[in-house]
Amino acid sequence: MWRVTATDREGREVARVEIEAGDLTIGRDADRQLILSSPSVSRRHCRLRIDGSGPVIMDEGSANGVIVNGVRITAPTAVNQLSRIEVAEFRLQVEPVGGPHPVGPAGVMHPPGGIAMPMAAAGPVPDVVRLIAEGGPYDGRIFELPPLQEIAVGRAMDNDLILDDPSLSRKHAKLRRLGGGRLEVEDTRSANGTYVNGRKVDRAQLGPGDTLRFGELVFRIDGGGLAPAARPRGQAAAASVPPMVRVAFFGLAGVALLVWVVWIVKLLTPTPQPQKGQVEEAIARFIAQADGALRSAQEEFGRRNWARAKEEAERALGFDPANLEAARLRAQASRAEADEVRFKRGVIDLEKGSPESLQAALATFHAMSPDSTYRLEFAQRLTTRLHQAGLDMCRRKLFRECATLLCDAYRVAPPNQKPGGQFARTLRDAERRGRIMAQCVLK
Question: What is the 3-state secondary structure (H, E, C) of the chain?
């Protein structure tokens, strides 16, 4: 008997199923045996098969895939109680119930007939591009873009990448893969715009490390590699591997080397019977040490000790290179450290009060991470100064400048602190007197 437990990002249990043998269907549809209610889970996402050789998980053509130990699977893959299985924002725990079960070997694939086969050697690394959500309702979620010539993005269900958020238009933008982890984005006349590195664009190119914003949803581009046909002659396949995959590969290679050393020592040492379970215990110990370092990183992050939080997150990755939560926390601490510097520089610009320093402060605001507490605090200060500067321009009868500054003030203001009433009347009057079309959308 095996128990399959699903937990959300906060560790809350959302579903539990026990199965003796056969198939366990997983997805968003009501006819699935294990239901995961989320738009990012496909209706028929994956399947877990239990047979005499143990559990095997297989993707059923889902949009966001199945991640096992940090790697998206492309074939039926053996799992056990030590495996880290991720389906969208959910984590699956597979564990035996009512008796000992053998821990299956890592990296073994099982075809539908149940006969174990060694994993095939990796071929040329394809071009992989991921969008990593930063802040908002999808915070920390990873979207791997399908290998399509053109990828439609928006709120409507017929898009290739569906983002269910009110700030997006039904048909918001299009993405095109350029190879080497790079993209071209084209805004399709969306209401709230498309931004690359804080700058509003109609069409632009971007690559790994750049930020891409649709409406209020912000993503960081991750990935790299070349499609096999496009790789220059003589270039090593490993050069196109994304950094996180490379770290995970060498980490697992190190564990495999440790296993071989232990095995050789056992062969050369005359012992009555080799002790069982050493490899599994070592892996469990590494995971426990990684979890301890991760908890320490979270505590330091809560104290706003960004440098220490980043250091502890890196220590967790040293024990478990495929730990996505540690990687996400390290990135958040790095961004928070940079946002603190931006905040101090922006405050100095606001104190100067000149039109040039106000524009510099506005650029600083857009460069901050969307989920940063520094950004929220700076937004409140910046909104007040922009509003004051706009009213000053109106008094001097510079109505075009007045309308621009008031519109910037409205856009910068936090969602629950949007000005209204007299502010809206002043803005519309400035647009009318300045003889410009109403460009600021007031909600």
Answer: CEEEEEECCCCCEEEEEEECCEEEEEECCCCCCEECCCCCCCCCCEEEEEECCEEEEEECCCCCCEEECCEECCCCEECCCCCCEEECCEEEEEEECCCCCCCCCCCEECCCCCCCEECCCCCCCCCEEEEEECCCCCCCCEEECCCCCCEEEECCCCCCEECCCCCCCCCCEEEEEEECCEEEEEECCCCCCEEECCEEECEEEECCCCEEEECCEEEEEEEECCCHHHCCCCCCHHHHCCHHHHHHHHHHHHHHHHHHHHHHHHHHCCCCCCCCCHHHHHHHHHHHHHHHHHHHHHHHHHCCCHHHHHHHHHHHHHHCCCCHHHHHHHHHHHHHHHHHHHHHHHHHHHHHCCHHHHHHHHHHHHHCCCCCHHHHHHHHHHHHHHHHHHHHHHHCCCHHHHHHHHHHHHHHCCHHHCCCCHHHHHHHHHHHHCCCCCCCCCC
Computed over every residue of the chain, the mean pLDDT equals 80
Query: Average pLDDT, stretch 308-317?
Result: 87
Interval 169-224: pLDDT, tens: 999 999 998 887 889 999 999 999 999 988 899 999 998 888 999 999 999 988 76
Kindly state the tokens that stand for 296.
Answer: 């320490």
**pTM of full prediction above 0.70:** no
pLDDT for 92: 93
Q: What is the mean pLDDT of residues 28-43?
A: 88
